Amino acid sequence: MPDDRRTLSQHAVVLEQIETLADLAREAILPWFRSPELGAANKTAEGFDPVTQADRAAEQALRAYLQEARPLDGILGEEFGPKASQSGLTWVIDPIDGTRGFLAGTPCWGVLIALADVDGPFLGVIDQPYISERFLGGLGQAWVDGPQGRKALATRTTPNLGDAILFTTFPEIGTTAEQAAFKRVEQNVRLTRYGMDCYAYALLAAGHVDLVIEAGLNPYDIAAPIAVIEAAGGIVTDWHGARVGENGQVIAAANAELHAQALALLRG
User: Fold this and answer.
1) Is 97 marked as a binding-site residue?
2) Number of domains composing the chain
3) 148-202: pLDDT as tens digits
4) Does the annotation list 229 as a binding residue?
5) Has 173 been labeled as part of a binding site?
């Protein structure tokens, strides 16, 4: 199989298609946001992992479009079963990243859409429908489009961990050992904030924060952020400095210096 990210000749078409997908997700989700008719089912027997009508409606809309426009591509989505790829390309979809926040009426949830080949995601969108803000990265593009117009994405150049802003979604990150590792980094940064889900990765790509460290993620949680952050000049690996994989650990850094400093502390 050839390297699709080099031989994909119709970049303009793919860029248009990923934006169409983001538009379709907005149309499917927004009628449910802060609606009194919104309900949630729990997908796990332990804790609370919600799914709503909006999650399912959005993923169904995206799958229907891809079946028509790109029938040979694979699909990996959060809410429905995977579709095998016949083209070497797979669309990785999280229809609502941050469903707990969506249920609570906060505006920090988002839609994640990525296009990946055997080497991983190379095009991604982090979309926030409610505030009409879209972050796109890959295939020579790196921009955010929102209420302030379109701007280029570029990660920060903060050289020292002591000056860094760190995000993670949950204070109780991962296992006990993972919590201890995260604490070592947290104790050495200027500021730590919690929450935001995928929006924290968008803020890193846009140059507002320096680090996002998380554990327990699935491929659809991180594929789009990887593409967007790398296009903006940042680095995303697991806690061992390797490609993000099945262990669910992620460290996203604005630059190589911060990545190395934080990684050393995570390793203990």
Assistant:
1) yes
2) 2
3) 999 999 999 999 999 999 999 988 899 999 999 999 999 999 999 999 999 999 9
4) no
5) no
